[in-house]
Amino acid sequence: MAIAAFDPARTAVVVVDMQNGFCHPDGSLHAPASEAVIDDVTDLVEEARAAGASVVYTRDVHPPEQFEDAHYYDEFDRWGEHVVEGSWEAELVEELDVREADHVVEKHTYDAFYETELDGWLSARGVDDLLVCGTLANVCVLHTAGSAGLRDYRPVLVEDAVGAIEEEHKEYALGHADWLFGEVATREEITFE
């Protein structure tokens, strides 16, 4: 049963951080559950693209010196060095079919709206509804979707196209999003009008 049919002209799929560093077995922050949703993410993108919706890919990218003068926010301290600018880890996984019409956002924090052009790009195209998928559920997916909600987008987390390190992390993120700022749906529940 569909939660509501989405108008493809006003909808974008936001694929969060499906990169080698997180989704490939050789990645420094590989999570098997993130690798496991690659096919679900690509299927969602194909369905949305066929309907005429926009597609956005985010890439978490860290310049090597990003946290050198950090007072507190230091992802390398928390996670170790990962997805460094120009590295294989920072590249999107090869299974994704990134096309010229798609938009790729480079971000340097958990939130794809923070100090990026994403809000302007979506607004310029009249996008209101975001189908958010990718990884990690309780980190970049959650912070990007929450930031979208604060900007008056309708963030819908696509639960069977979201990866996490632990299943309870995913359950927390989806529950929190559904309770506080967005909605949760399965791919089967999503249709386009």
UniProtKB/TrEMBL annotation:
Alphabetical UniProt keywords: Hydrolase
CDD domains attached to this UniProt entry: cysteine_hydrolases (cd00431)
UniProt cross-references to Pfam families, sorted A to Z: Isochorismatase
GO MF terms, alphabetically ordered: hydrolase activity
Gene3D superfamilies to which the protein is assigned, alphabetical: Isochorismatase-like
Keyword Hydrolase attributed: yes
Protein's name according to its UniProt entry: Cysteine hydrolase family protein
Taxonomic source organism: Halobellus rarus
Domain Isochorismatase-like: 11-189
